[in-house]
Every structure is written in structure tokens, then in C-alpha cells.
Amino acid sequence: MISICGVSKWYGPTRVLDDCSTEVAKGDVVVVCGPSGSGKSTLIKCVNGLEAVQRGEVIVDGVVVTAPKTDLNRLRARVGMVFQHFELFPHLSVADNLTLGQIKVLGRSRDEAIARGLKMLDRVGLAAHRDKFPAQLSGGQQQRVAIARALSMDPVCMLFDEPTSALDPEMISEVLDVMVALAEEGMTMMCVTHEMGFARRVADRVIFMDQGRIVEDCAKESFFGAPRSERAQQFLAKILQH
Amino acid sequence: MLPNLDLEVVGASLPFLWTGLLFSLKLTLVAMSGGIVCGTLLALARLSSIAPLRNAAAAYVNTLRAIPLVMVILWFFLVIPLLTGKPVGAENSALITFTLFEAAFYGEIMRAGIQSVPRGQVAAARALGLTYAQSMRHVVLPQAFRNMLPLLLTQTIILFQDTSLVYAIGAKDLLKAAEVTGKNYNRPVEMYVFVALIYFAICFALSRLVRRLQARVAIVR
């Protein structure tokens, strides 16, 4: 479904991605972790072309994202993305947040878009909040609406960029519950997260990044059992301490 | 201090002043709407990734902001007939000049407004598959406009006051009407005091409106 092949990226002289290669098969859940500044957010943003790469190839569902002639808007409509800071549109109601992309990008009618949006809103348990504005919702609720917004587009895969990092501890689980349910239904997911409980529960594979490189890319069991690299061992020791 | 004020003059000149006021208001509204539309385009150009577009818009804005408005009014009025061979008339000349001039100022306000919208909003819009234009139209500009509404209105108050500068080319605005009637009745002091009160009343009311709007339109984040 997602194929990243020899991807490198520079910001000026700084190399932020260094020859990264990995695959995410259909229905797989891959967790990307690593210290801050290791390039994990940049890597995930290369998947839908929000970040351009200077070298290498990214292919999503048969579409070459990195080819200059690719219609990125059409690709992005099929790849759901959830951000650290939710990024709901604050001037639009929840219902309008859910329908904007469907109407403008997919060309659905308003009724169709509302029906689909509300179904997804119900799925994340927030059907009662359709007429509210984002600012009237808690962080956890906003993030669930953001997930519903992405799902309303009927994506072939979902990208999560630290979806729980900006949340209070008691709101993290309500977002993770939605993500776990999604994973169990067979959605292809690539998640940048430090929630190792989530990784243990639903991930098929874990990718560990450091200084722009993919240091470790292995099945969940072997990652948590015995990571090969010293850097990953140190990282795990630190975040699993508490 | 002001002996022998003749208030009857004011009453007698009201219809003429009204015509002048209407033109001042028309000039304000045309320059505001035209200025905001052109200014928004200028702002988008200034924030564009295309260097020539960015530089051209910057040159336009910086040039107009460095010249006194009254000179732009005079030049446009005098130069355009020379170029086109026929006079445009004081009123039309004023409407065009003000729109072009105010675009530079509204443009800078809109640029600040666009930059006040977090970058993540654009990323989220693009991630949904919206084009650049759609992201601007449906996500960024509505927020920018709302964030900047008090500033845009404040600029409009300044614009309304500046419309009095068209007296330089003889366009019949409120100030010109006061000047003409003042001369006709030989009562300039009464007339200038009276139009000053009109300018004050309108601008004061508008600035109170700005203060109320400031509290109401802010988007809660």
C-alpha cells in the first residue's frame, strides 16, 4: 500500500531524512517512533506529499507521489491525515469541517456529504456535537472529529502524526480507543506516536528512527523483545521507565 | 471666540452638503471594497512562492506607501488625460486613485491576517486534497478576514477622512461642498465647523463599532 524507497531530504545543508526505505502492506499498522528531531514527522508527511523529497521514491496505492506529474490533490483525497494539533477549521462548525473536503474535492452533494460525515462522527462517539464549533470541544473531542473528518473522505490508508502528543493524559485514551478500533477493522495505518501501549496492542511493525535514519524496522515482538540497535534500547529504556 | 455665528447658512446649505457627503461615502465604499479585493490579491502575491510576482507586489505596495496620497491624486488626475487624450473627470479619477492607493494598505493588513493563520491549517486543508486556491478561499482567507476585521475597519475610518483630499482636484465631496457654500454665503467658519462635526460624528460612531466588533468577532481557539 505504502512504499518508501531510498528517500532523502535536506533543509539547506541539514539532512533530515537519510536514505529511508520501508513498506506498509494493506491492512498493516506500522508505528514510527524515535527521539524528537529524528525525522519521523517529516517521513510521514512525505507519504502524502506535504513534504517534498530530494531523492528517492514514495508510492502509495500504485501512485508515485514523488513523480512531478502526479496529481497530488487527488492522491491526498485518498490518504487520511491526522495532525498533532488537530487542525480543525475553527471558523466552521463540526458538520462543515466534515463536509468541506467531501464537497469540494470529491464532488459529493451536500446531503451525501452530511450523511457520510455524520456516520463517521457517530463512529467516534460525537454525533451530538455536529453543530458545535471546534473551540467548544475538548482536545480529545477535537482530535476525534479530526479523525472523523479524515475518514469521511473514505481513505485507503491513514497517517497519524503524533495524534495524542498535544492531549491531556485523560483524553489520550479516548483518541487511542478510536485508533485501536480502526486498526482492528483492518485500516492501513502509519502512526508517529510514543504510545508504546498502543504499539504493543495493535502494531504489526515498529519503525525506530534516529537522526533521519530508519535504525530499526521490525515486527512488534522483536522490537519490544530485543531491539538490535543500542540507540533503540536506550530510547525504550527511557520511555518505558515510567 | 466665534462671534456672530450664522446658523441659518448651515440650514440653507444642507441639500448641497448632502450631495457632497454622498460622494464622500460612495468614494469610501468603492475604495474599501475595491481596495480589500485588490489588497487581498496583492497579499497573496506578496506571499507567493513565485519570485517575480512577489517582487512586483512588494514594489507596488512599497512605492504607494512612500508617496503622499494627495500627490497620487494629483498625478493620476493630470497624467491620465495626457496619456489617453481625454479627461476622466475629477470624480472618476478620485474613485480609481483611491482604490489603487488603498489596495496597498488593505493588502498589508490582509498579509498580516493570512500570516496570522497557523501553517497547520494550510497543511490540513491540503491534506484533504483541497487545491491551493480552495485552501485559501475556504480555510485561510475567512480566518484572516475575521482576525483582521477591526483593523480593516480602522483603515476604512482613515480612508473616509482622507477622501477630503479630493478637494485638490475639485471633486465635489463633503469638504468641497462646505467650501463652496461657505464662499457663496461668505460664511466659511460656520461651514467648516459644521462639516468638522459631521466628519467627527461619522468617524466616532465607526470607531465605537470597531471596538464592539473586536470583542465579538474574535475566533476562539
CATH-derived topology of chain B: MetI-like fold
Number of extended strands of chain B: 0
Shape of chain A: globular
* Count of DSSP-assigned helices of chain B: 8
Helix content of chain A: 25-40%
Cα Rg of chain B: 21 Å
Please report the number of helical segments of chain A. 9
Proportion of residues in helical segments of chain B:
over 70%
Alpha-beta content class of chain B: mainly alpha
Question: Which descriptor suits the 3D outline of chain B?
Answer: flat
- Taken as a percent bin, the fraction of beta residues of chain B is under 5%
Describe the protein's architecture and organization.
- The complex is a heterodimer of chains A (242) and B (221).
- Chain A is an alpha/beta fold and 242 residues long.
- Helix content of chain A is 38%, strand content 25%.
- Chain B is built from 8 helices and no strands.
- In chain B, α1 packs antiparallel against α6, α4 (90-116) packs across α6 (132-162) and α6 runs antiparallel to α8.
- The radius of gyration of chain B is 21 Å and the shape is flat.
- The model of chain B has no long low-confidence stretch (mean pLDDT 90).
- The interface between A and B is medium-sized, with 29 and 21 residues.
Write the layout of secondary structure elements.
The complex is a heterodimer of chains A (242) and B (221).
Chain A: E1 2-11, E2 14-24, E3 29-33, H1 40-47, E4 55-60, E5 63-64, H2 72-76, E6 79-82, H3 94-104, H4 110-123, H5 139-152, E7 157-161, H6 169-184, E8 188-192, H7 196-202, E9 205-210, E10 213-219, H8 220-225, H9 230-239
Chain B: H1 7-46, H2 51-65, H3 69-84, H4 90-116, H5 119-127, H6 132-162, H7 174-184, H8 188-217
Helix pairs in contact in B: 1-2, 1-4, 1-6, 1-7, 1-8, 2-4, 3-4, 4-6, 5-6, 6-8, 7-8
